Amino acid sequence: MEKSEEIIKVLKSKLSKKSWEMWFGTFSVKNVSETLITFSVGNIFIKDWLNQKYHKQFKETIKEVFGRDVPYVIEDELASEEATKEKKKTERLIRKRPVVYSEFNKEYTFENFVVGPFNEEAYDGTLEVAKDPGKMNPFFVYGGVGLGKTHLLHAMGNYLIQNSPDVRVMYVTAEKFMNDLVMAIRNNSTQEFRKNFREKIDVLIIDDIQFLMGKNGIQSELFHTLNHLLDHSKQIVLCSDRTPTQLSEFQPRLVSRFQMGLVVKVYDPDIETAMQIARTFAQRNGLLLSNEMAREIALSSDNVRTIKGIVTKLAFKSMKSGVNADTVANAVRDVVGKGVSLKGPASEKEAFFQVLSGVFDVLPAELDAKIRTANLSRARQIGMYFARKYLHKTFSEIGTWFARDHSSVVYSCKKVEESLRKGNSKVREKVFLLQKLLRKQSGESAG
Ligand code: ADP
Ligand code: MG
Predict the structure, then answer these.
(1) Mutation choice for ligand 1 from 114, 147, 173, CB with most ligand atoms inside 8 A
(2) Which one of the ligands is nearest to 126 CA?
(3) How far apart are CA 238 and CA 153, in angstroms?
(4) Under a CB-based contact definition with an 8 Å cutoff, are residues 240 and 121 in contact?
(5) Could you tell me the pTM of the whole model?
(6) 148 CA to middle of ligand 1, Å?
(7) pLDDT at 245 exceeding the cut of 90
(8) Nearest-5° angle of CA 362, CA 365, CA 367?
């Protein structure tokens, strides 16, 4: 008689008919070795019950059959089924480890991406495409620099490699696409190039497509590549710093291809979200920011890259001296320099009044006049504060600009500072808007 049959026979003889029928219907001896005996039952409840109630009988049975004590375990079928499934899955993952077409930055994952109202649409779209490539085709993401577009594209790549190892995903910048093509033409290997970009992939991600503006020959190749992939239901993902229609000197047939699928925008973060991002980055670096610090960082940044840069710098600086208003100010200065400045053809006062009047919807000439309305007073106060804090003007310079005396400038600056400290979001929004507009203006005149 086999050992497993013998075990069953002996065990049965030790139990009442009733308990045998009640509890041992799914019982079997799964494995017998010198060192361990494995029993199997239908589910975890039976397993627990048998372990509790029949330990003595198991032990005695084993001793009788083997002439000595051998430890035993009871497994439940469901759990062991799951385990084999899991095992098979990992085996499959290992076997099908994808041919690596592109290196993806391991840090750029969906988990590490901070989602807010400004980038929610792009985040959702990218994740959706990663889960089900081919569904929204082509997928086009656009938005300003440093807002996380490349991060999202890499997140998609990382996600696909993790979750769909048999999907072949390739990421290139438009510049690399061009260089590869030029190389291929030079080496008489355009066949090879086309095979790489058409036959060998399931998902093609092209970053910074605006790089191809005015490059007509490359655009033609891109057009045929995209057509081929679309015809074969392969996923195309494109990224740009502007909308498809704003891509000047782009072939209209390409632009209309871009618009065919889903187009999503990454907006500029609002001040509230920018502060939240600063806090999140800080937390990841083990730092806790006060509201004031978060606001300082957010006000000085017009994109996520800058916020990240400032916080990284801050984390480094605060290793020695801890976080305080000074280390924050230093980190900001290190990353963004002196910040906004007034350059261009107009005088500084004129340039500033122009922007300030736009933000408050007043006339520039009203700002240094005697007129008093609530809105004008607020515009002056915030303008004075801004000129002091971010344009680094002296109190007397500011007094001359606004035709006010020294003490009322000092008073205004104090008032605004106080409002900000109390978390007045209207004032905060205005300062943020001023920052943004002036930054834009100085960027334009510099470029
Ligand atoms: P873009 O491609 O839009 O110019 P990047 O993707 O290169 O911007 O982002 C710049 C930096 O900011 C990267 O280090 C990126 O990880 C980080 N970043 C941008 N947006 C986010 C976000 N929402 N959450 C976390 N990090 C972000
Ligand atoms: Mg990018």
Answers:
(1) 147
(2) 1
(3) 9
(4) no
(5) 0.72
(6) 3
(7) yes
(8) 65
Per-residue pLDDT band for 447 (boundaries 50, 70, 90) equals very low
Q: How far apart are CA 76 and CA 334, in angstroms?
A: 62
Identify the pLDDT of residue 428: 93
* Ligand 1 midpoint to CA 9 (Å): 68
Report the atom number in ligand 1 closest to the C-alpha of 144.
3
State yes or no: pLDDT of 92 exceeds 70.
Answer: no
Distance (Å, whole) CA 294 – CA 282: 9
Above pLDDT 90, what percent of the chain? 72
Domains of the chain and any CATH numbers: 3-78 (3.30.300.180), 120-266 (3.40.50.300), 271-336 (1.10.8), 348-442 (1.10.1750.10)
Concatenated DSSP letters of 178-219? HHHHHHHHHTT-HHHHHIIIIIS-SEEEEE-GGGGTT-HHHH
Burial class (CB in 10 A: 0-12, 13-18, 19+), 69: exposed
Q: What are phi and psi of 40, to 5 degrees?
A: -135, 140
CA angle (270, 390, 339) in 5-degree steps: 75
Q: Which residues contact ligand 1 via a Cβ below 6 A?
A: 108, 112-114, 119, 145-151, 304-305, 308
Closest atom of ligand 1 to CA, residue 151: 6
Nearest ligand, measured from the Cα of 120: 1
What is the band of 95 on the pLDDT scale with cuts at 50, 70, 90? very low
Residue 117 Cα to ligand 1 midpoint, Å, equals 15
Mean pLDDT over each residue of the chain, to the nearest integer: 90
- Which tokens go with 296? 């300082």
Provide the b/e sequence for 263-288 (b: ≥16 CB within 10 Å): bbebbbbbbbbbbbbbbbbbeeeebe
pLDDT of 222 > 50? The answer is yes
**Gap from CA of 294 to ligand 2 centroid (Å):** 25
Q: Is the pLDDT of residue 36 over 90?
A: no
Q: Which two tokens stand for residue 283?
A: 């937390």
The Å distance, Cα 290 to ligand 2 centre, comes to 30
